[in-house]
Structure formats: structure tokens, C-alpha cells
Amino acid sequence: MPDNSCILWIAAIPLCPLIAAAVIALIKPSWKRAAVGAGLLGLGISLVLSLYALKLNIENPATRFYNFQWMQLGGASVDFGVVLDPLSASMVAMVTFIGFLIFFYSGNYMAEDPDQTRFFCYLSLFAAGMLGLIIANSLLLLFMCWEIVGLASYLLIGFWYKKPSAAAAAKKAFITTRIGDLGLFIGLLWAFKETGTLLFYNNGTGLLESGVTTIATAGEPLFGISAAAGISTLIFIGAVGKSGQFPLHVWLPDAMEGPTPVSALIHAATMVAAGVFLVARTIILFQADTVSLTIVAWVGGITALFAGLIAIGQNDLKRILAYSTVSQLGMMMLGLGVGGTAPGMFHLLSHAFFKALLFLGAGSIIHGCHGEQDIRKLGGVLKSMPITTACYLCGAAALCAFPLTSGFFSKDEILLCAWNSNRPLFFVGAAAAFCTSFYMMRQICYVFFGKTRSHGHPHESPWQITAPLTILALFALAFGGIAKHFEIATYLDSEFTAPHHSLTVTVVSLVVALGGLLVGFWVYGFRRTLSATEPDAMEKVSRPAYRFLENRGYLDELYAATVGALWKWLAFAAEMVDAFLLVFSELIVLGVRQLSNLFAFRGDRLLIDQWSFDGFCQTLRNTSFVTTRAQNGYLTNYLRFIALGAVLLGVLFWWSAF
Amino acid sequence: MITAITLIPLIAALGAFLQPGRDGRLARAWALGGSLASLALTLKLAWNFITVGGGVQFVERHEWIPSLGIQYFVGVDGLNFLLLLLAAIIAPVSVLASWDVQDKKSIYFPLLSLEFTGLFGAFTALNFYHWFLYFELSLVPVFFLIKFFGGERRDEAAMKFFLFTVLGSVAMLLGFQLLYLKTGTFDFLALAGLASTGTLPAMVGPLYGWIFLAVLLGLWVKTPLVPFHIWQPEAYTQAPTAVSILLSALLSKLGVYGFLRLILPIFPEAFKAHSVFLLTITVATILLGAFAAMRQNDLKKLLTYSSLNHVGYCLLGICAVGATRTGLNVDAQTPALQGAILQMFSHGLTVAGLFYLVGRLEARTGSRYLTDFGGLRAVTPRFATLFTILTFSSIGLPFLAGFASEFPIFYGSYGLAPVFTLAAIPALLTTAIFLLTLLQRVFTGPLVEKWKSIPDLSLVEWITAGPLIVLIVWVGVTPGYWLRASSEVVDYILKNYR
């Protein structure tokens, strides 16, 4: 048993950005440079620690953890913990590294924003949550950090709060992901109920150790679903929400309302990958009942293809990338579903580099073109922004799985696993890969070639922006090959056995990657798009199909008409019930009022005052009137009474004598 | 000590009422001084409170009317410890929330102080007789405060509030008198003792069920649960801010506390028998509160329904304990009850803060309608930040108080009554929907022109809301610390339910 206490220091990895966030929250909003400095310092320390942790873990890839109690609930102890294993070591290193570059980039990119201080506060809060999520050794702690990154995402999407669309997108993101979160929450409760622990690793008694056996052997299936399948599917629902999988992906493209560095960091490289990470972390639960693993693979495959198609119909530079992210996340899920941790996580890591690069490049383009992000209005960026263009093309090549770039190696791994275990999904994945190459070439043709179709003069960005781009471009090109060379797959998953190499797979993946690019170039490369209002080339092919893609498959409308309408109806029903009760209560109040009026008026005034009290006086007066009449002072009258009395007495005596 | 905590606000009320000059300038100072003195004493009490192995502490017990078995009996145990603390914290908050009340100060502040006495008393009394006195005493000032200082429909609101709660109370009084006739005691602990040995139903005979229902009715109205919650929206909405705070943060807890102090220990058999019915009512309350809140335009009304929903979670935990069947996880009972106790505390903090800030918003703008606002973040960033934190605590964001108490409740109730728990889950989503819509409408979008010069948080507002935020984070980060106080008493209550 390894000595675990020596890794408690990795808890400092999320705490440094957290402290930075707290400091930034307390300083004056005008101290922008201090805020940037604090943010960079906090994440910088985390970066150093993370790289050290990675080095330690590569030397000795054991699972080491440190647990402590959070609360005691009767017999159950709710524990937190941190864990260092290949999964968390590689993720923290990636997140802190890319995060640091993006923080650096934002220092310049957001410099003119009056709220830059707040921006860095939120970014640091996000980094803290994300790093906490990764090193958490407890499903509960992971869930809690998961919610914190959701909050940070909400705050950052709605960062430009004066824009109603940004505020709406933020709300949509939080609520859509919360649907998934509630699934995860129920799964967590269920797992806790079955096993009595939420720790992943705890010397053989953790959820991923003996807990799996407990869950797998748990009887009493609920509605015919075994505990293992139920729990893992619920966990996957959480991942679906966070990682923008179909059908809960609708929030992610809208999230592009946030500043571009946010899109790069949160909605491309790190947070949205948290769902993939979660499935990878708990994959052993999924493997206990392979039904859920099949669900993961298919949801991933469908997402990859669907989002890839929709990306073709988008015109917003960032939205295309957003759908591309959704599609790639689907590929990762597909990888997890067909090949376990290794292929999915490998693609996650390589994707993080090139997608962050693409977003930062897009930010540089938007910055240089004075805020324009409609690809139909861009154009000719190649000439005015050569460095950005070069870097962007590196990222695009990696995304399209151009041979020998990062994406080529990681996507190849996924397709190979799919080929060996699930043929239909292999073709779905290949089709998605074709779409990827096609929409990237479409975007490249629109943005970089031709002449600018908007007003103003584009200019190259300063070195603070191009330097991170260049670094990321190197990683986008080389990371995959190096990682492959050092056998990252077996590092990430020690039980991973590389599937047999298949020539068919290599040929197919080459054909779809290059074929997509060629077809894209054939469709878009030879035409001179002169005005921004010109219809798209694909629109000429099939107008209804293009409209369908342009409108994102009408899913937003569908949801508004179904779930949204149901919820509104329920709210209406609740209000009606309440209104009915309100009328009822008013009637009671009215009744009591009437009753008290009855008492007050009829009872008190009429009965008591008038009838009994006043009436009593009147009776008295009347009686006395009668009685006083007798005593009227006339002697004859008195004598008459005396005589009457005497006669009466006489009669009484006579009567009593018998 | 408890007597002193209870009586100091009464003295303050007298002082505020009888102070020379009668222009009421010193009235608020009296009220604040009184509430702060009580808070200081309560903190001292909390410092000396023994969380584990302490039993009922700070007991004061004197014969009052021996022939009727009535004692003056007060004390603190794990059940009311957090509530006493909450009451002591909320009292100064409510005084500060009325800091700019202008007219009839020499009536307003004495009534407010009198209310504190009623609440402190009701949370600490352990004999039915004077518990009931305090319980009723706490209605009177609220009635007059709504009636004299409320909004447009204050007469109706006060009337409805009074009628409903008094009807409930009368039922409860009758129930306890019957219980006294049969058992000869008014003492909660003695009654609980009788119940735990199983002799109480036999002593009471066929009336047992009726007594249970009578007591239940009183708490049902007070908490409130559907359909008797109907006095609530108007009372909360028409009341002045301070009274809304007291009603939502403390008076509603009086009902939940009643469940824990009266129903669970004294009527275990009847409670078990009716638990499915009660769970149905509870889930209906949770869902109705959440969904009805979606439709509200008046911020105070929205918070009222939200509060209905959140107090419902307390009862979800409590009622799930009654539903325990053999074969289900008995270990889940403790979290359910402990969570319910903590939820009272964290909801009290959160809702008090929210009502306070809504009151301050109304003081600035004269409006509390969602549709009147927009983009306020631009002029009041700090105000918006505090409001956002409180809102997210209400939504149940981890590391804030709401999650820390809802997690044990849901863990417990999921183990005991999974179907009802799952039925309540949509409310968690709905809460997020209407609270985020609130934030969106009020603080984001283009700034509404007429509010462009409203001020950000003042010093008084920082002093009032700041401590609440600190406590919310504290509870959220280290709930284990706050749960410890209730573990022992929960074990004691649960003896009857194993």
C-alpha cells in the first residue's frame, strides 16, 4: 500500500486559483493589472504543482489518494478526498497548461473591458472548480465542483450582461446542464444508498473498488433496470448535459455569447470535457453492465455525426467551432464506449490543445477584424493576419485528423476500436470525420481566402495574443505523435490492449479526412464570394436540407414546443390551483366576516343591545309605568285596593278552612 | 439565561413604547439594542452548548400552576439549538430591515420586539402550556404589524393570516387539552417518554387519532402545507419587509419545529400510519410552490412560493422517516432528519437575506415587479453580487448553505421513500428556472432609464446582509460542524422508528 498522505499537497492545485479568485473579488475593480497578476500567479503555481504531479505519476503510475471526512450522518460518513492517478495527473497538467496560456491571452484580449477584474475573478473561480473536479476522490466532491464550474460557466457566458442574448444564453446553459446534473445527482444518491460510500478509492472499499461489486450484485432492479446500469446511465446523463451530447447539446452553441477566451477555455478545452472525464473516471461502473456502455457509444456517435452536419450550415465563426466541439466530444464518448478510458481520454487531451488554439485564433481574427464574426463578412484574413492564419491552419489540420497531426493519432485510435467492437458505429464515426474536414475547409475558404467583405482594415494581433497561439500550434501538431510514441494509451489505462492494426481503418480515416478537405475545397475554394449576402454553395444543392442545418435541426423550437410548453403549462396549472384555493379562502374570510357581522349587528346590536339590553330597560320602564299607575295618590283608588285585598284574604281563609 | 434571552426584547419593547418624547426617535435603538443583547446572550449560550452528550441544556424549571401540571420549563437541545440561534440572528436583521420606517415608530418597534419575545419563547419552551402562549403571542404582533404597516391589501392579508392560524391553533389547543385530561401532563419530554414506551395510545384510547389530527392541523396551517398555505402569499406580500423576513425565516420554522417536537416523538404510531398521506401533501407543496413561483411577477410573491417549496424539503425529510418500511435503508433516517433541521437554519438565512434585499430594492425604486426592472447590475454591482449569492444558495449550489442541507435530506428521503423523492426532483430544476429568470430580468439587459441613479449597497445594508452571506458560506463549506448539534437528539427521536 503506497503512502497516501504525501499527496495531500495536490489539494493546493485547486486552492491556489480559489485564493486568487477571492483576492480579486476583494480588490478594487479598477485594479486590472493586479487582477491579471493574481490570476496568473494563482494558476501559475497550480501549473508548476501539476507538472510535478504528472512527473511523479509517470514515474510511478499508482493510484494514490488522501481522504477526510466532510460530515457524519448517523452511521454513514460522507467523505471527501483527493486522488492522483494517470487520469487526474494528465488532466490537471492539461488544464493548468492551457488555462495558463488562455489567462495570459486574456490579459491582453480583455484589457479594454471595464470589467476585466471581474472577468479574472470568474476565470480563477472556474479554474478552481475544474481542478477540484479532476482531483476529487469522491463522487460527491466531484459533483460539487461540477456545479461550481457550471456556475462559473453561467457567470462567464453572461459576462456581457448588458446584452440580452448573453444573459439568455447563460440561463439556458445553466438550466440545460442542470437537467443532466439532476440525473447525476440521482445516480449519486443511488450509488450512495447501495454502497454506503462515495469515495472512488479507499483501500479497497471505495466506489470503484468493492463498490462496483456491491452494485453489480445488488438485487431488486428498479423498473427492470439493474443497479449497475441505472447508476451508470444516470451518471452518463450528467455527462450528456455537461459535455453537450445530443439531445442536451443545445446550450453549447449559444454559450458562444461569452468572451472568446471563455469559449476556448471552458466551452472547448476543459469544462465541456468534464463529462467525458466523469465517464472515464467511473468507467468501471459502466463496464459492470455493458448496456450503459453501449448507450454511451451510440449517444456519442449520433452526437458526433449530427453536430458535424449542423456545423456545415452555420455562418458564425465561433458557432461552427462550437458545433465542432460538440461533434468531437461525441467522438470522445464514442471512444469511451467502444474502447474504454484510453482512446476517449487521449482524444480529449489532444482535442483540448487544437480546439483551444482554434478558439483563440478565432478570437484573434475577431479582434483584428473589429468584432466581426460572420464568416460571410470576413475574408482575406490570410494577407492581413499571417501568424494567426498559420496557427489556425495548424489547429484545423489537427482537427481534421490530417496525417501526423495530433488529431490523426487520437481519432485513429477511436476508429480502430470502433472497427473492432462495433462496425456500424465505425461508419458513423467515419462520416462524422468527413463532415469535420468539410466544414473546416468551408470555413477556411470563407475566412482566409478572397478579399475582405466588411468595412475596416484587419490587423495582426499583438504578441501577447500570437505567442499563446504559436505554443498551442506546436502542441496541436506534435502532441499526438509524441504521446503515441510514449504509449499514452497504456499509461491512461494499464489494462488497455491496443487493438489489431487494420489497414482498412487507416485507409478509411485517411480517405474521409483528406476527402472532406478536397470536397470542401472543390465546393468553396474555386468560387469568388464577393458579397456577404450571396447564398451558400450548399444552399444551391438542397435548400430545405440547408435550412434544416442552418436552423440547428429545429431542436430549440422542438424543445420549446414540448418540454418548455409542458413546464409552462404546469406552472399555469399550479397557479390555477392556487387561484382556486384563494377564492375558497376568500369565501371563508367572507363567511367569517359575515358571521362576525351577524354577531356584531344582529347579535350584539339587535339581540343584546336592542332586544335584551335596551329591551330590558324598555320592559322595566313599561312595567314601572304600569306599577306606578297604581300609586297615583288618589285615596279612592287606594281604598279600592284595600277592599280588593280584604276580599281576597277572606276567600283565602275560607279556602284554607276546608 | 434563556429567560433573559426571551425577556430582553420584551423590556426593549416596553422601553421603546414608553420612551419620552413619543416621536419614536429612540424606538429603533431600543429594538436594536434588545435584539443585539439577546443575540449576544445566545452566542454565549451557543459557545457553552455541549453538542455531543449534552442532552437538554440550560434548563429552567419552575412550578407555575401545580394543580394543572403546568410548569415553566425551558431548555435547549439539538432540536431547537439552531433555531434559537437563527432567531437571534434574524432578530437584529429584521430591525435593521426596518431602519428607515418613519411613521408610528413608537408602535412599530415595540411590536417588532414583542414578536422576538414570542419567537424566542416558542423555540425554547418545553411545556405545552406556555409554549402555546408564546406560539399564540407570536401571532399578535405580526397581525398588527401587517394591519398597520402593510401594503394595499393589508386588512385582508392580516385577517386571513389571523383567521387561518388561529383556527389551526385552536384545534391544537383542544388536542392538547384532551391529551392532558388523559395523561395528566403538558410536558413534551414526559409525553414523548410515554409515547416511546408505547403506553400513550392505550392511555388515550379511541381519541388518539383525533388528537393527532388536531395537533397536525395546527402545524399544517403554520408551516404551511397545501392547501392551508393559502393565507401565506398575501401575508408575506402585504407585510412590511421586516415582517416578511420574520414570517418566512422564523414563523414557518415554528411549524416544522412542531413536527419534530410534537408529532414525531409523541405520536409515532399515528405518524407512521399517515406518512404516505403526509408525503403526498409534502410533495404537492414542493411542486406547487416551485411551479407557482414561475408565474409570479411580484418579487415578494415569487420568494413566498419559493419559500413554500424550500420549507417543503424539510418536511420531505421528516415525513420520509415515517414511511420507513422494513427492508428499506434504516440508516437513511438520520440524514433525513438532520438534514431537515439544518435546512431550517440554512433556509432561514437565505430567505431572510433575499427578502431583505428585495425590500431594499423596493425602498430604492418603489417597485418590486420583475417587469419594471432591467440591467440594474450596471448601477448596483455589489447589490447584484450579494443577491446572486443568495439566489444560488436558494438554487442549491454546492458550498453554499442550501446544498449542504438538501443533500442529507435527499440522501435520506431517497433511501426511505424513493418514489416521493423522485417526484420532488423536478422542483429542483424549476427552482433554478424561476430564480435565474429573476436574476436575468432584474440585473441584466439594458439598464432601465429611470433607475440609472439608484445607489449601490449602503453601510447599513452591508452590515445586515454581510453576516448572512458569511454564515451561508460557512454552513455550505463545513456542514459537518453544524450537523453535529442535532445528531444526538435525532437518535433519541428515531428510537420509535427503528
Structure characteristics:
heterodimer, A: 658 residues, mainly alpha, 26 helices, 2 strands, elongated, B: 498 residues, two-stranded antiparallel ribbon, 73% helix
Written overview of the protein:
The complex is a heterodimer of chains A (about 650) and B (about 500). Chain A has about 650 residues and is an all-alpha fold. In chain A, about 75% of the residues lie in helices and about 5% in strands. Chain A has 26 helices and two strands. Chain A has helices at about 10-25, 30-60, 85-110, 115-135, 140-155, 165-195, 210-215, 225-240, 250-255, 260-270, 275-280, 285-290, 290-310, 315-340, 340-370, 380-385, 385-400, 405-420, 425-450, 465-485, 490, 505-525, 535-540, 545-550, 555-630, 635-655, and strands at about 65-75, 75-85. Chain A has a two-stranded antiparallel sheet. In chain A, a hairpin with a 2-residue loop joins β1 (about 65-75) and β2 (about 75-85). In chain A, α14 crosses α18 and α19 packs parallel to α22 (about 505-525). Chain B has about 500 residues and is mainly alpha-helical. Chain B has a domain at about 285-500. In chain B, about 75% of the residues lie in helices and about 5% in strands. Chain B has 21 helices and two strands. Chain B has helices at about 1-20, 25-50, 80-95, 105-125, 130-135, 140-150, 155-185, 190-195, 200-205, 210-220, 230-240, 240-265, 270-275, 275-295, 300-320, 335-365, 380-395, 400-415, 420-445, 460-475, 480-495; strands at about 55-65, 70-75. Chain B has a two-stranded antiparallel ribbon. In chain B, α14 (about 275-295) packs parallel to α19 (about 420-445) and α16 runs antiparallel to α17. Chain B is globular. Chains A and B meet through β1, α5, α6 and α25 of A and α7, α14, α16, α18 and α19 of B.
